[in-house]
Design the sequence.
């Protein structure tokens, strides 16, 4: 669906944006056009209408809101737009009423102007009663990436009844806003599939329906023209979301030229004071109950008996400055408030942050990172609030003091007002938090798009090179239920299920090509095998290894062409395979006990079945997204003070590479084992879907590319990867004889340090070397000493 170019005016506060819009509207009417003006509040609608009646008495203006039409506002507005008077005029309404119009007939007849940028993101959490199926049975959920599901109405009639709520039923009232967003189609709504599935099966932990709704660009489709005007427009959620959906924005320079100013020029009169050295949040206040009283006392001391405005979270307003006669609470919708311009002081204590899950959705689904979220929510709110005072008046040359919650916020505001200063209140003795340096990508959305493009490109390379890969392995296929396959086609490799390796030191591999059903059957058969030692068992790798002329090894990363299925090695944690299956409720998976498994200390492996092969990079990306999703469910990687079954620790032994090895299923050395196939209502992980919705996680090593040019980063990363592979191969060659591994591991560490290999890659390489030695436990201890000493060679 094509969306017209949207004009926008990123006017700074106090620059006369609404004043300029009124003049633009008058021009439209005199040219014979009818215009719709959307504003954020009823008060602002009336204020604008009154100003226009004075400035442009010849321009007809009609206001539609509850003050003018009462309960019939929506019906009256809809009728008016369906059959407007046969004369040019201005229609003024609130954004809320505009979005509730059930159908917009012939929008090309109108020019649309939005005064302030609409909120594009509507998160909502509803604790549903037991009769939630009145809603959930009427919904259809379609997979949309690795975490979220797209919500649509499977029963539009039922959703319509909930949206209309004519009888004011209690349940209907509870879900009415969500039902309206789904039914009216103004928003695209998503849910977290794991928690939603838990709700459907009656899980006690999943009684809350969490939804994330994004405003559709189609809301502005078809109008004669559209103008969005609002401060710092490029930094809003709407701008970033729409742009990611293909909307083109064009700056309205003609309107910008009518403003009093385009940039703030009175910064030298402003002081930004701040309380906390850390990002302000309710959690910060909870962790240190004494901090907030110190903050409030510092404000009282700084302002003395001077008049000031303030803002705080609703739950804290009674204990803030409600008892101070010369203190004015501006509330949480300060747009259009101009009666405080005589005041020179403001204090803002509000903690505005998206929840962990809400922020995760914006990052993972929309490509809007945490820093961008904080700017769009907390910093913009503060900017609008303190600009209600004399800060907005460029002709006021008195000293102005603005108190903000944290240093990062104050630093951002200072950049908006060149010449202003940032001063700590002196109530936080903690050192400042280090911030990241500028990155190669302009924002998280660009970084995510680049990440997805890179994954798609590498995935295409794998698919295009299948025949060559098959040719190198034709003599050693293991074929189960695949007798109809031709070796001269790419079918065997697209049915790849990994490679078998007889023991860790064996550089040969045997490819497995079979159906998913045969693979599961084989794995279950192996689970019944018993061995005297773990090392007596064979290993499996997700990779297809191919020989390369310029690579001496046969089982290194350079030899890994593609692979299938995602493997997780889990031990010494509290995450059970049943809990893991609920985190990925739609993905077919295997779970089987390892050789060292005991009832008291479960150790097991999980195989997430995939629907196709993956490139090495795609395997690592999906693996990291899986770990990221598990951590989003509250699981950490380590215990705080030793093992505690009440803590949520996943226990994943990170093996993120296609070349990593895993022992085949077998019976534990002590006690009974298990082999489970989670398949009912599930399907293999959709590699293409995860690729198209992939996102960088904390596990991805993009830091180097953020600090230097992308081309140089790629070159360095390639060199380091090659160095690690060659050094690891030398280690293997030097440790064929017993008693050589200790000295060889120190030599390997020294080589990696001299080559400038990053700590994460060095740790992985040393671990691989240690595990492939004859004394893996001793070498692992050596490795730990090396990582602690940061390069002390022996």
Sequence:
């Amino acid at each position: 669906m094509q969306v017209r170019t949207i004009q926008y005016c990123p006017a700074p506060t106090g620059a006369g944006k609404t004043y300029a819009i009124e003049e633009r509207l008058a021009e439209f009417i005199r040219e014979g056009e009818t215009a719709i003006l959307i504003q954020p509040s009823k008060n602002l609608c009336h204020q604008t209408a009154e100003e226009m009646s004075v400035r442009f008495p010849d321009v007809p203006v009609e206001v539609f809101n509850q003050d003018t039409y009462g309960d019939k506002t929506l019906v009256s507005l809809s009728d008016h737009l369906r059959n407007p008077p046969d004369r040019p005029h201005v229609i003024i309404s609130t954004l809320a009423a505009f979005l509730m119009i059930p159908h917009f007939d012939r929008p090309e007849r109108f020019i649309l102007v939005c005064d302030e940028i609409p909120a594009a993101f509507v998160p909502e959490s509803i604790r549903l009663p037991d009769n939630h199926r009145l809603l959930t049975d009427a919904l259809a959920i379609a997979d949309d990436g690795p975490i979220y599901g797209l919500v649509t109405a499977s029963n539009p009639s039922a959703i319509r009844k909930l949206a209309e709520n004519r009888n004011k039923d209690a349940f209907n009232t509870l879900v009415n806003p969500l039902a309206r967003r789904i039914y009216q189609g103004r928003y695209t709504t998503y849910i977290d599939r794991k928690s939603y599935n838990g709700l459907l099966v009656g899980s006690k932990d999943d009684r809350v329906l969490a939804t994330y709704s994004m405003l559709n660009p189609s809301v502005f489709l078809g109008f004669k023209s559209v103008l969005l005007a609002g401060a710092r427009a490029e930094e809003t959620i709407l701008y970033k979301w729409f742009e990611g959906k293909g909307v083109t924005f064009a700056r309205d320079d003609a309107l910008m030229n009518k403003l009093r100013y385009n940039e703030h020029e009175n910064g030298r009169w402003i002081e930004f004071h701040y309380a906390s050295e850390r990002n302000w949040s309710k959690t910060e206040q909870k962790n240190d109950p004494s901090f907030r009283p110190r903050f409030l006392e510092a404000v009282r001391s700084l302002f003395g008996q001077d008049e000031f405005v303030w803002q705080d979270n609703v739950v804290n307003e009674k204990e803030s400055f409600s008892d101070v006669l010369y203190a004015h609470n501006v509330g949480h919708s300060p747009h259009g408030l101009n009666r405080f311009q005589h005041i020179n002081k403001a204090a803002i204590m509000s903690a505005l942050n998206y929840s962990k899950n809400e922020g995760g959705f914006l990052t993972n689904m929309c490509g809007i990172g945490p820093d961008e979220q904080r700017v769009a929510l907390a910093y913009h709110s503060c900017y609008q609030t303190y600009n209600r005072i004399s800060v907005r008046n460029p002709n006021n040359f008195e000293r102005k003091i603005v108190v903000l919650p944290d240093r990062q916020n104050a630093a951002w505001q200072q950049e908006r007002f060149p010449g202003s200063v940032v001063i700590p209140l002196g109530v936080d003795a903690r050192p400042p938090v280090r911030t990241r340096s500028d990155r190669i990508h302009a924002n998280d959305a660009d970084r995510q798009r680049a990440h997805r493009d890179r994954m798609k490109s590498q995935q295409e390379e794998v698919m295009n090179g299948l025949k060559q890969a098959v040719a190198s392995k034709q003599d050693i296929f293991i074929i189960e239920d695949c007798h109809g396959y031709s070796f001269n086609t790419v079918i065997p490799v697209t049915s790849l299920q990994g490679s078998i390796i007889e023991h860790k030191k064996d550089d040969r591999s045997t490819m497995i090509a079979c159906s998913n059903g045969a693979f599961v059957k084989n794995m279950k058969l192996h689970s019944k095998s018993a061995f005297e030692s773990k090392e007596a068992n064979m290993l499996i790798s997700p990779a297809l290894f191919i020989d390369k002329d310029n690579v001496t090894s046969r089982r290194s990363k350079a030899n890994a062409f593609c692979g299938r299925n995602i493997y997780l090695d889990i031990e010494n944690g509290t995450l059970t395979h049943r809990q893991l299956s609920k985190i990925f409720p739609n993905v077919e998976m295997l779970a089987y006990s390892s050789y060292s498994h005991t009832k008291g200390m479960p150790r097991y492996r999980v195989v997430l079945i995939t629907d196709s092969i993956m490139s090495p990079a795609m395997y690592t990306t999906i693996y990291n997204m899986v770990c990221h999703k598990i951590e989003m469910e509250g699981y950490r990687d380590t215990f705080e003070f030793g093992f505690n079954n009440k803590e949520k620790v996943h226990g994943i032994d990170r093996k993120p590479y296609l070349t990593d090895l895993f022992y085949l299923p077998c019976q534990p050395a002590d006690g009974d084992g298990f082999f489970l196939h989670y398949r009912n209502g599930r399907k293999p992980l959709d590699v293409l879907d995860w690729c198209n919705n992939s996102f960088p996680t904390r596990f991805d090593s993009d830091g180097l590319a953020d600090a230097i040019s992308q081309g140089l980063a790629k070159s360095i990363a390639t060199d380091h990867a090659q160095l690690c592979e060659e050094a690891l191969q030398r280690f293997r060659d030097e440790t064929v004889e017993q008693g050589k591994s200790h000295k060889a591991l120190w030599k390997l560490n020294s080589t990696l340090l001299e080559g400038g290999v990053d700590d994460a890659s060095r740790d992985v390489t040393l671990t691989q070397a240690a595990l492939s030695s004859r004394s893996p436990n001793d070498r692992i201890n050596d490795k730990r000493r090396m990582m602690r000493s940061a390069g002390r060679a022996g």
